[in-house]
Write a structure and sequence with these properties.
12 helices, 2 domains, about 290 residues, single chain, alpha/beta, Endonuclease, Chain A, seven-stranded mixed sheet, 434 Repressor (Amino-terminal Domain)
């Protein structure tokens, strides 16, 4: 039996099955292979059995660890890439307000880098409880059908869950990158006093060394139309906003790459000098307070 890439290959063979075939032919155990390429035996097993979606980079690493011919390494990586692009699972986040917050927290928790873009409202991780309550109250009902998505108690629980999510900002080994349109600060989604509290919160969080907040000003031309907000959780998940819910791509790295490209384009035209912008809106909302001088 030769080491030809075509040797014993079955038509339609999956990437995992091909890696398992090569590993057996090379008489290498999953544990030994894992140690060689820096992966756990369990991860090797999941890739071989198809329990995990094959990452092209992981496939290259394993194939090279097996000392496969260069053309076979690239064939398997290309097959993984093709599989990745075909398997883009967009999952709707359930309408239950507290459960939605806890679900998002479960996706954010394992990742070291989070990137958020918002064209209309302050990102959830940066919201004060008053601002969050105003937002979540507005989405208690499914748009257009009057169906309740949460009771008053559910809104309170969702606010508490959102505040619990924001504690991640204080974990020094994690990084958070936020890009907002200046219109976020224009939109009066709660009272002037609560908007002032939200601006104060932005100032405080922007001082954290692991947090970067950038704003795309009103006069800046957008490289891509800011159609909707989204959050990138590492390089594995992206959550895109809808009117009354969100969609999460849990397996499509192509979707993640596309959104990262857009995020980087927005970040490139956004300013980090946010204090003058916050000053402007702080003055606006102070003037809106009861009893303010005309």
């Amino acid at each position: 039996m030769t080491d030809s890439p075509n040797s014993s290959r079955s038509a339609g063979e999956s990437v995992g099955a091909a890696l398992a075939r090569w590993r057996r032919r090379k008489k290498i155990s999953g544990q030994v292979l894992g140690d060689k390429v820096g992966m756990s035996q369990a991860k090797i097993s999941r890739l071989e059995t198809g329990a995990s979606t094959p990452d092209p980079q992981d496939v290259r690493l394993i194939a090279r660890g097996l000392e496969l011919p260069a053309d076979e390494v690239e064939r398997l990586a290309a097959l993984a890439e093709q599989s990745d692009e075909q398997f883009v699972e967009w999952q709707a986040v359930e309408p239950n307000l507290p459960n939605r917050q806890n679900f998002v927290k479960s996706l954010e928790a394992p990742v070291r880098e989070v990137r958020v873009f918002q064209p209309a409202v302050v990102p959830g991780l940066l919201q004060t409880s008053e601002y969050a309550r105003a937002i979540l109250e507005a989405f208690r009902f499914e748009v257009g059908d009057g169906k309740a998505a949460g009771s008053d108690l559910a809104v309170q629980e969702a606010v508490a869950a959102r505040m619990a999510r924001s504690q991640a900002l204080y974990e020094p080994d994690r990084e958070f990158h936020f890009v907002m349109a200046e219109t976020v600060l224009c939109n009066l989604v709660c009272g002037p006093l609560d908007m002032l509290g939200q601006i104060k919160r932005l100032r405080e969080i922007a001082k954290r060394p692991n947090v970067a907040i950038r704003i795309v000003t009103l006069t800046q031309r957008w490289p891509v139309p800011p159609a909707n907000g989204f959050e990138l959780m590492g390089d594995r998940h992206v959550m895109a906003d809808l009117i009354n819910s969100s969609l999460v791509s849990r397996a499509g790295r192509r979707a993640v790459r596309q959104h990262r490209h857009v995020f980087d384009a927005f970040e490139a035209v956004a300013t980090t000098d946010i204090e003058p912008i916050l000053d402007k809106y702080e003055a606006r909302y102070v003037q809106m307070l009861p009893g303010a001088a005309a």
